[in-house]
Queue: 2 jobs
Job 1
Amino acid sequence: MSEYIGIIFPTEAKANEGSLVLKDLHAEGSIALSGMVVVAKDATGTLSVKKSVDKRHLGTAAGALIGGLAGLPGGLVGVVFGAAGGALLGRAADAINLEDLTGVFDKVSRELPPGNTAIVAEVTEQTQGNLDTHIHAIGGTIIRE
């Protein structure tokens, strides 16, 4: 079953390493990676998009959904994540409970310390615990909703 996870890293370089780990685990079949977005929080608490990857090219529904998210309580955070992960959000509108995705985005935005970087990804774990082992080995903290 597909789920949304957040992964917090202390640096952007570690988050980039984490995104490579997710891609490698996908390639070897340990997980199915549907999409991910990498965001960073600067010292002032402002979020910015570093990278957005949609494995299935599912961005078409994102525009309308982003507009809806902008009005949700969460304001700027919803807008930033919505704009960054438009493809992920489009996928969520089609196949996954939107509450799960917004719950993960909210939790990551609250728990992401200034100066840190996070990945939000849609994954299906084929091998239980393998993802956690690899992410913890490179200094990441996984957030599940």
Note: The chain has a mean pLDDT of 75.
Job 2
Amino acid sequence: MGIRTTGTSPRRWSRSWKFSDIGAHEVRLLVTAGDPRTVRTMLPGLADYLAAPPAAYAHLPIGLRANSTALLSLRPANIRLLTCKRSWDGKALVVRLQEAVGKKTLARLTIGVPGLGKSGDQENVELSFKPFEIKTVRVEKDRRWSEVRMIEEDKP
């Protein structure tokens, strides 16, 4: 036990007191209300926002060109995009997805070619998820895709 020397007479520290020098703590809290089903579908996105709010860059162009197409689109909201990176061999895009609210889900990942804006220039990938399942998808430059192993990025 240590001696606390605050004040005029020293006092013994209680054994229940604990001290730690681990720096400042940052706590973020979000309160939401509504229909439980609606709130549950919002949770993955809200958790992402609390953990890492989106960055805002003033130098990016404002607005989209009329003929632009998104590179990736993902539905429904309970499927989270965990990773989007170049494959180990540098020849493809690797996308890691997770079902985040604990229910079986049929998800749609839409892969497009930015700048072309033609509806035929998209590939729809339908994926079936078990509760909390994580899947890794390899997308080739010609938009062919396949599910792959998480680390090795090859077919199981």
Note: Strands lie at 3-4, 11-12, 72-75, 79-86, 92-99, 105-112, 122-129, 134-140, 145-148.
